Amino acid sequence: MEHLFPQILQINLTTTFMKLLVLFFTILIFIGSFVGCNYSILTTGNNADLDYKMKMSTTEQAKLSYSLINSEILQTKCIGCHGNSGGVNLETYQNVFDNLSKIKTSVFSKKTMPKNNSLTAEQEKMLWNWIELNAPEFAQTPENEPQSEPLTPTYSSIYKNIFESKCISCHSPGNQAERVPLDKQELLDSPLELVLPNNPDESGLVIAVERTDRKRMPPEKEGYAPLKDEEKAAIRKWIADGAIN
Asked: What residues contact residue 67 under an 8 Å CB cut-off, 6+ apart?
């Protein structure tokens, strides 16, 4: 009897091992089917759900254009990071068109963009429909095309063309740089001497945007591209002219 004990023990261990092996593969199969199911939902169900949720009338769709999407969404929510340095550049229609798939995935599937400034429900609807229409460059109803405002050395133009898209997401109440507001009077009255009329070289705003080290604004560590030369020149000229307009 004693000589049979090792054989019985070996059989029991083998049986236990086989049971564990079967259990392991069963779990793997279950996980695989679960993930596969979710993947199917992501690639099919979500699009159908979004199509229903984002549905626009034919009249509303006819107003969609690159110019509208650029002024309402890209300039205010995206260009600050996706501008003239590295990564995905969204400054031109062709660049945006070439990255439609990435935009759709990051905004609607992964929900990772925009990073610091979420789209409103209306902006999401506009962007979704525009992409679904294969991103028309021009509206079917041209009279609704928004007119872009050229950059000039005035506060209102600088605010519209630079601050709104590249600064306000941080320099506004409740955000990380709220103690440095960019309202005109706040800039003029700032103890940080951000704007010294007729003296751009010593104005903190000019120094901040023209510097090339880690402290330049908008901040590189937050993913923002530096201002273009013409944008820096407009700020400098506005201050040199007395920061009046």
From this structure: 138, 139, 145, 146, 148
Q: Parse the chain into domains and list their residue ranges.
A: 59-144, 155-240
CA 62 to chain centre: 25
Among 77, 81, 134, which Cα is nearest to 104's? 134
Residue 204: what pLDDT? 95
d(C-alpha 91, C-alpha 162), whole Å = 13
Examine the pLDDT at 40 and tell me if it is beyond 80. Answer: no
Token pair belonging to 51: 């199509």
Question: Quick one: pLDDT at residue 42?
Answer: 34
Question: How many residues are there in the chain?
Answer: 245
Query: For residues 219 and 225, is the Cβ–Cβ distance under 8 A?
Result: no
Tracing tokens 């519209």 back to the chain, one arrives at: 160
